[in-house]
## 1
Amino acid sequence: MNGHKIRILHDSETKEDVLKDIISQTKEEDSFMVLELDDIVRKVERWRRLLPRVDLFYAVKCNPERAIINTLVSLGCGFDDCASKSEIRCVLDAGAKSSHVVFANTVKRISHLHYAAKNGVELLTFDNLDELHKIKENYPRAKLLLRFRCDDKDATYSLGNKFGAEPDETGNLLREAKGLDLDLVGVAFHVGSMCKRPSVYAEAITTARKIFDEAVTLGFSPYLLDIGGGFSGGRNNNFEEIAEVVNHQFDFHFPDDGITKVGDAGYCWPIIAEPGRYVVGSSCSLATQVTGKRKKKDPSGQWEIMEYYINDGKHGCFFEVIESLPVPLSCGAKKREEVPTTIFGQTCCGEDVVCKDVTLPVMQTGEWLMWEDMGAYTVSMTTNFNGFKPAKVILTMSTELLLYYMRKDLESGYHSPGKEHLANPVITRPARYHYTNRRLKQENVLPDVLRNQNLWYTTLMWYDSSGMTDGSSWAVSSFVGALDRGNWRQGVSKATRFPGVCPQLMMVMVFQFAPSSIHRKDFDSETTTFSAPS
């Protein structure tokens, strides 16, 4: 995340507009990505609307960008599928509570178990006898989730060949855990990445209920169900269909009556899931440049095939098979002939093929292409193979989300960050805060997911291309405070005394917070002297 820039989107501005603008203003030769934080907020809001009983615990491996982690922390999400102490450290450093983290690698290094124990991360998964004994020896007070296997055979990526106990093995694992005096608190499963068959969740939840009941008969008090991932994240997905199946199964097997009777004891049923692609898949668009091309005949010698080379590839953002084809970013281009096409990556690896035998418009060397739905398993999978740099990331945010975070910065009383944070646009400083500001509610500038909640929020640092100093961070907060008191001219005067203050940001804040008697023309006259001193 260090060094990433944040770009504030205007009302009608799109990611495609941002990509074109960056290309037109720079001599960029490397691929780059635009990450839309608002898309992630919308995904969380949709999740909570369609799966109200399931707490979202993000799968960090999918895209560990610092801005994504911080945004999810601010929205009160948890983190699942943390596979190592590095991923655990990543989310804890961002302000996640240790109780909202699952160490979900079913085979863990001993040093990583010690790290989890030291940092209070108690939820661990297991699926074999050897792991139980390892946990008993190194972290006996851990709270355990038994992961069992239930696969969607049509899923894009199967996980059951590597993870999850077979259903007929779970009884033996439960008995061993009881004999070791370990604390089993629940059951977990994962149907496979990008599930195609929603009915498999019904099978899995039914099996989970049976394992719960057997655990109770052995003297455990299980209360937590982890339904894993498998939720697609692109624009075309089956999430609503999956949600309908899952909710129906909850009503039958884990009814939401507050307390469910199991024998003579009563248990509540917290339910979590570990979506990755769903959260970030559609949040990113990648821009790549055509660096070369050639024509070839097909094997019969009849059809011409166009072959293009781009400045990214399989060792970069195209590790996985792509779900959508690129769109040329040339402005005002006429309709072009479409031909059979192959696109190669930039490395000397013969397997570096981005897509093959697809139909695309004829393109020119130097032309830029936009690839959508590139948020999942792209930047997290990149390497420096052949000396090529990973794609740069540019963050975008709407004025509504900007105002939310700016407001939190002011009300937290946090005006002067330490110098160690100055390179980061997203400052990790969580604080508990109950949102009560009437003005913002009445003006309806916040997404529903951000209203009336007890949130963990993240302080953001805003700056233009020249960067921002401690003083200008104070100036922005001082400016907002002056606006709140109705003295917007005083706020402008204070804010522009320091380098790095963005005039566009000041205008956003004026027209959001200033009294209605202020007219745009009044402010425009001020902008003649509204540049930050050098």
## 2
Amino acid sequence: MFRIKLTQPADRSRLRLWSPTAMTSAYKMVKDEGIPVYRAAKLNGVPLTTLRDRVDNRISIDCVKSGPCPVLSLDEEAKLCEHLKDLASVGYGYTRAEVVNLASDYAVSLGKRKDDQPFTLNWFYNFIKRWPELNVVRPSSLSEQRAKCASEESVTKYFNELERILRKYDLFDKPHLIYNIDEKGINTEYKPPSVVSGKDCKAQVIMSERGKTVTIIGAGNAAGMQIPPYFVFPGVRMLDGLLEGKSPGADGIMTPSGWSNSVVFKDYLQNHFMKFCQGRSDDTILILYDGHRSHISVDLVEWAKQQNIVLFVLPTHTSHILQPMDIGCFGPLQLKYAQECSKFARTHHRVVTRYDVCSLACKAYSFALSPLNLQASFNKAGIYPFKNSSSMVELLKSKIKPSELYIVDDEVTASGDHKKSETAENNFFDKKGGDVHIKIMKKKRKNINSIVGGKALEGETVEKMKKYIDESNSKISSNDPKKKKTKTPKNKKNSATSFNLQINDKQKPGPSKQNIELSEKSDLSDSENESEIPDEDKCCQCHQYYVDKHSHGAIEFTHWAQCDNATCSHWVHLKYCSPVHVVRKNTVFYCNCCL
């Protein structure tokens, strides 16, 4: 009888007791310095056979784990990795499933896999481990206008102009004179924060129905001082309860929509901002804000000039990377406001109403526009301490990358095609995703933001702005309103139904027939339309297209039918010019001419 010797299973923890760095070092010693394989393995503490397999090219030096080598080589995976990073940086990233499909197609094109042997998610997770520079993230949304306008050219021009203004008014070392003003919309409906709940229940938050937006106008300087909030409530009459619980200095106003406008913004600057801002002797104050139409007016520029204030408009659609309030203040304000609303609802056991918005928003405003946040926001925006254009372009390189997709049409070659490399047609990744790099934009339309965007409102810029406004006003006054043209309904020869109704513009309450206009003007318009209609499309009995309005009711639903006689094919008004009222499907109909 034979005895079977039971062996202990291999201890997986003892496999591959060498590091990839040691294996690479030993490989280089053999290849570059000519040291024997046995000696290099002993010096670096790697297995002899493992090193010999890599020296003899039986296994790639890039393989750092036990088992078979990856299907794609290091260079091939590097190209795939670069393609994934490139597409993600411009806003067209791949999902995990799409990466697996892309890699499968790539392996098939290289002849390393068959169509019926695609990669799986296990390959994807191993691929991510081999390339730690890749990561699965949830991308943030970016509007197309921001992707187009946040370009290297606009950032460079903006910082060159800002440097000129700071040098002209000697503001490089005066952060208390550099302000940023922006608006933020909040609502009684908020995004609730994460809460702790049981695993077997679905947590919910009770909140009020979505109401109208309340706008907060906020401001602060580079030294870290905030201007008290200014609220714009929706409505007509200001109620005392709306500002209950406000922070010291906070104020508000009413507009029908709850949004700011040119009148509100000017009132804010004159009566609220000037009350709390620093440096009101003979110093020049610099105010940076976005180019919303409510911020640009000739009256506002003239007032700012009298008050020794320089208004500086940010480039169009670049506030997400250049405006300090958007960079580091309004994000925390939104989060803090949601937390305060959640805490208020839990404490008072009721929903947040418009009378609670002011007190809750003031707490969030004081927290978000703290001195530390304001100073960090101005620093990150490159305003104070000032950073030149080349430094900011380098810092914002990843955020202005999507603008490289868009090419203005006057920069395209004469043939109308963007230049490509000679191997673009043969490149697998160019065929899969290369077309996103060719998006030709039309020439920029001339508007007020193209004149004032990224510039200080002074000198030649103000003159151009006044000229543009005057030209726009003259065009509006000279152009007559366009008259709407009504089209005559076309005859459809299936089972055509004609609806002919003319209603008086000044209708009065009453029966439907009372407001029907049967004037000579309508008859003339019908007669003019009748002359344009061919005879074969008219009724063969009354020789008209429209039924006589005076002999029948005020509203006619005129039904047509075509004679089934092949030699006739005339059209007839049912009910009015024929005893037949309805023609059903698969029934034969003959007009009076053929009966």
## 3
Amino acid sequence: MPKGYDANVSYLDDHELVSSFGTVRSNFESGDASLYRACEWGQIRRSHDTEVGGRVVGKRAAVGSQAILVPPTSSAVHPQDLAGRPVAVNFHRGSHYLALQALEGFLPREEIKVVHIGGPQQRFEALRDGVVPAAALMEPWITVAQKQGYQILTEAFYVGSEIASPEVDTDTYDALNRAVVKAVRKLQEDPYPYLHHLIGEVPPEIDAELKPSDFPRWRLRFVDPAPYPEDQFRRTFDWMRSWNLINEDGSTYNSLVDNLLPFAALMLVSGTLAERWGRGRVLRAALAAFVVATALCAAAPTMELFLTARALQGATNAFTTPLLVAAISDLVAGARPAKALSWFAAAQAAGQGLSPLFSGVGAALDWRLAFLVPGLCGLLLVCFPPSRSATLRATTARASWRSLANRQLALACAVSFLAYLAAVGLTVLAVLRLNDRFALGPVGIGLAASAFGIAGIAAAPPTGRLLRTRGPRYTGLVTDVAMVVGLLCAALGTSLPVVVAGIVLVGAAVTGLRSATNALAVTSAPENRGGAASLALSAQFFGGAVAATVWLPVYHALGDRGFALVAVVPVLSAVVLTLTGAVGGRSANPAARDLTAVPPRGR
């Protein structure tokens, strides 16, 4: 990036015309550099755009600041005075993103105008020469400008992060961080002996007398490098998407997407394999692996290890959930399976709805605490696993792949996919709307989202009765209607109670749909209940995995109307259930296991 501003080159106002790696040859993409530090937002965008496998590996030590300044003669005295006026930034760098975040606290988004000038010296010179009325600057240019009478309208500090290429191994990165920590200690003690590095960026013709004592101490902040926590990534990534600063292609570290895709793919086969290997031993092994994976997530020193541990968590779940559905169906007799399946669905809804509350509160203290509750729950289950009798199969027949090819299971998979496409759409978009419309923070959003899980628990008794008396198809139709109403309330409600009521309705509806699809699945293949349950659950999680990719662009393009379009999905589900007629029948009660029979070997 050339330092001087060329007055013959007009500025750009479309960030898509500028590469996130800059307008000149990128040392990182060309392989000349393997690691570099920059602003948090830009690094997320670069890890998305990279062609050499670059990934964000941690937070940097330097805590930067950017200020929006105006010339001494400017009539602007506060950020509101910049409505509709161009502010010079460097697209896909800290000045770009911080200017947007700083100004949107004072102005509607449509009145914020940022334009690409280039690096900090170019922006200062464009401001000095009257090309732009305001510019976002960082040190040393904030101090240079203030010395010459320029006025700060707003200033903020921001997080930086580090992006590394795949050849940077853990040992190398750890060694670099040890050196950085030593440097941080020296800078925290006294940064002034090192400010000649900043001063050297300013040409003498702009300020020949710049000296270390000109810099205020409070603006020079340095902290130890640290991992980049998931909750912070999610918040930043969602904000970037809301400004269309990153493509909507599912390239997200959001656990809802990254962890569900391998989970869903593995579930295509996990249920049948587990039925063949033995439910008890598979459940015990999967629970132990989940505890190990959760501990690795909390202790992971690098992003690569963290993502690997998250994938392992998903893999362990693929071998537990379908077996639990199958075991419930084999264990209980008479009218009890409908009630048991509805309570199991309620427990799933509770976990989905309450996890943001526990994780949000824990992560507010330390990102590693987000894994405390699931880790403790997993450890408890390892110490007190299901009994041998609870995991026995009702049949001695070998679990067959062929038995899974039937219309009833296909119906269960279709409804399951649609249910989660809508339900996860609600959980993703409700978070954005609660923040955008009602300015709720992480704890407030977590409390509102917890209504989803609470409603799921409360819906278990009526769902069980409905499933027992009217069957899974009718239960699915009723809960699809409830989901439509809930989605419209959450999407279009003008008051917080109405939105929360919508979340409650959807939470209750999800319990009904889970119960209905599980009942359809396990009764479709009695000799391979685990395999049938895992196929239906795989469809469910595939629906959840694509939900963010499907609905976020719609929401950002159409706002509340885009959110409301999610209600089309349960309508489609109801149409599928209606057109299938008697498929699935009225019975949700599979034949119970004869507990007096000799148990099959190896189970």
## 4
Amino acid sequence: MPDNLANQLIGRLLPEVWNFPNIKKLIAQCDKFSPPHNALVPVRHCLLSPGGPMKFSLEGHQFAIFGYSLTSDCRYVISVSNKFLTWDLATSEVCRDVDPHIEGLMLGLSLSKDNRHAAAFTSINQVIMLDVMLGQCKIIENPLLPQDDIVGLDVVDHSVVVYNSHYWRRFSLKGDLAEEEYFNVALPTILDMIFLDIDHYIAVFWSGDEEFLDRRIEILHSQNRNKSDILKSDQCYCLDVYEDGLKGVYVAHPSSADENCNLFTVSKHGLQRGMWTKLSEISSAAPELFQLSMTGDKQNLVGTIVEGFLIWPLGPKGISTMATLSLPGEFRNVISRPAGSNSCLLNKEKTMALAGVREFIFIWELSSETLVKFFKAHYGRIIHMSSLTDGPFDCGITSSMDRTIKVWNMSNIAGTVHHIEKLENKVEKVLSVEGLGLAVSMTRNAVGIWNLRTGKLTHSLSQNAVGAVITEILISKDGKLLVTAESNFLYIWELGIRIVISSAKHPEVKQLVFADNETKVLSMRWLEEYKVEDC
């Protein structure tokens, strides 16, 4: 609406008033002439600014996104949480929303090569098959034996393969069991399985040590039920897979030149007549590696280490020489899953590197190995990163626990980012103490403390770090005491030091009211029930 134009301009352009005199004049005109049309005028930067590195923020999921996939033509992103969402990358609009009405969350996603079918498995061992074009779903209940949990799945040749650590089963798109096969390997836990076609797969197994002290990995290749010998790795692996087959596997072994086993050899192995053969050596003195991965064009190999990342050129279009990229001292990479950690991407020109650690994005200049900048990209931990550098695209894609997927313009990734303070979930209630310039907001899982003078979120409070459910809040007139109803308990906080000074069990609180000059709190569940707690 035209009456909202001034408010949109102010909310988006406020951070630039100090850099551009004409924008400063425009904002001043908006402040002066807009109130008669719309008196809701932003005081702080509250809307996304134009330009900058972020192209799109794809929002629409109610829960964390545990899987997403790009279509082969790079036009769409399909993602899963408790439903399937498909975004158009040209417009950032949701073009299909399919809710299969399941009780659990979908934990993995696989997309067919022709983009016509997708499949995901859930936390309660269901398989959901989706016809992408028609938006129709088929649910397979308990595709494995009742005592077995699903580890992963893959869509191949108009069928879905579901697997765990002991065996795999293939189902038709109608849900009928077509075949199954049991594994015969030494290591007990499957890590990954990739089908190139119905009769051709690669399976990766690991020790199952959840402390990640024993990180042995074994890789099995099978074609027409003929098994290769086992390729072993002591730390991590990377599959070099193309549509027409497996080109090689990168693995890490302790270096023979290092008696203390602190250095590792990274080498490429390939299959010759069913036997794994060493094809080349990438590095003979690499430090402990958490992950190996390839860049999107398969011209560079990226190793994740504690202090940062190592990048080795593999082909003529790779970087000119090996690069070592270091994180700031307060950040470290950690193992988040077997042979897995944080990822690192390169832009199309291979001049910049982009990595996600926790909720931050880090950017390095490759030629000098210098950290250019880092910024808060998400409000929750980054789960997955991938690059899109085909055709006209030069983008990085990140998904996060904050239930969003963001698309970043890597050709402008070093541009200025204006961070907007916000909470993870929608705000359900706001209270203010104007004399202190303080506001308190309530979401489902946290209480936000805001500085009204700066517009900054100063603190986020909850008694339970995980699983908090907050139903009501109340703050005293002097701003010293905060009362919260959280997860069937009543908590009284001393706001200045953010410490709980009193608590009492009281489930399902619907409303809180002060009584007796704010010396008591009246809490109510239903009309006929009440309970009084002393402050």
